[in-house]
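(Fold this chain)
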Amino acid sequence: MNKIHDKTLRDLELSKVLLQVADFCITEPGKEKTMAIKPFTKRNALFRSLNLTNEYLASYDNNNRIPNHYFDPVNREIRLLEVENTVIEVEGFRRIAAIAQTVNQHILFFRKFEEYYPSWTRTTEKIELTREHEDAINRIIDKFGEIRDDASDLLQQIRRQINSVRSKINQSFNSALSSYGTAGYLDDIRETVIDNRRVLAVKAMYRRKINGSIMGNSKTGSIVYMEPDATQQYSRELNNLEYEEKEEIQRILKELTNFLRPFQPLLETYQKYLTLTDSTAAKAKYAESMNALLPEITEEKTMELLEAYHPLLYLTNKKSGAKTFPQSIKLNPDNRIIVISGPNAGGKSITLKTVGLLQLMLQSGLLIPVHERSKTCLFDRILTDIGDNQSIENHLSTYSYRLKNMNYFLRKCNEGTLFLIDEFGTGSDPELGGALAETFLEVFYEREAFGIITTHYANLKMLANELPNATNANMMFNSRTLEPEFRLILGEAGSSFTFEVAQKNGIPYSLINKAKKKIERGKVRFDATIAKLQKERSKMERTSDQLKEEETRKREEARKLEELNSKVKTKLESYQEMYDHNQRMIYLGNKINDISEKYFINKQKRPLISEFLRIVETENSKRKKESAAIKREERQKKAAVAKELEKEVKVIREKKKEAKVAASKSAKPKPRPILKIGDRVRLMDGKAVGSIDAIEKNKAIVNYGMFTTNVNLDQLELVEAKK
């Protein structure tokens, strides 16, 4: 794969897509990496990027979501590790520990779910799994970003001494505060803080009576702030200890920095991995926002983009609630070049840009919004000529610039090229420019390049019709309303509807007629023929839609009739069986009636029994004999069905039981009524109803008529309150 020219990236507005993708990033390095995305030059790297994005997108639909990847950049810390005798700050160590913890979490996650994320697993396999530097940092710095007391024996000793001295400072100051306050030397505020030291608020007239150093005074001069001598002595000792603490902390941090210095390449790997993860996650979120996916990438030179959307247009319309029309387009060795024609504002340029941008996005490692049955190949070059491209600085006109661009196309165009040209041949005399454009198109065709062009030139439409592996296409346009339908139709050239659009916009018919006379009659007839064909096609499509609807309706009616016929047939069969059964019963009944009459007349039991047995044996001979094995198999089947039903019933009962328990838990308990003398009540687990005769100490005497009983009030429930 060759490098795709920057002009193509500008023409197809890839930077706008990347800007939208970057908005989904959660770190600055991730945004920078996303904005620097370019089409891949190596196939392996491209497929790796596409698979990573596709797996990340798939993670949104399963329960094993990829862990969070946020990190604070450690660029400064990595640079410091490269220089000898440098010291990293505490916050820097915390960032290093956090980034190491995050990456280790990812490595273990992908080892566990390798089946779901094979590409991510291969990526993390290259990163060393070690907690050595993370543990070293956590031994020195706690979760609040403070140096631990036990970071070294000396630091622990110094901090003990500091705590002891601070305690002595407080004791000595409180003692002075109490004695001088009792003597009435202090102002009402008694004390304040200056330079992080507690000082006494002494009345100016008594300052000489205080043993201590003056630290300042109030604006009026009525108050002098003094530190007692005893407190000052301890403060000097505290300053010395704090200096020693600072020196020891600096030594510990330097030692920790030296310990981490060999891990500098690993930290770079960590940051690169998390930056890649952030950029890939952004691409997956962007794909999710427009239902994008990874189409099949084939080795054959074939492009089939089905129901393809232009990403920028789709997301813009999605925000405003407008409809976006998808396009389906196919390129293959038998149909390498498509010439799209039709009126302006019909969607030709958007179709062209959609194909180019989607191919560019795919070759840059981004998923694209197409139907899942879409497939495409990879192109070595994508050449574009879209827009005006006037160059004022180089004193080039539009046509001069386009000719210069065509020269570049002629040098680079081959069988691995996809070219996209908007308004091919414009900018010069229609006859001469059209002839030159026709020649260019023939060269592109001979070199077996793939491409799509848009044009109004009739000669290019005719050439596309003549070339075996090229085809015309048009953007559907409603000839009655003269409104675009934004649908691409392959196989037919499109009319520009020049005069029809002019008439719709109020241009007098006499002027339109005059214009028609100024051009060749054949050209008008050619354009009119194309317009007529498009009208006929629209009619055919409407007729086809109606026929399809009727066919669907007829199929539905046939299906219903078939179902009805089946039901009737089943009923007839059941009626026939019933009739046969009834006839047999009548026959048997008559037989029994005959032998009963004979017995009634002659009272002979033996002929009666003999005749009856003969009838029974005759009937039994008609019945099918079933083997014991078949009967056993049927019994087993029935038992299995019963067992399954029993299991299902058990499951349903369990679910109902759980639901009942949950409902009872969630249901708020009803407040118990207050029972009074005369209320009719019953025991909670009983049926007999009685009345309360007396209530004493949370117990009630209940009268059941024949007897009375003493019961706790908690065991009773109200049946009817006394009126």
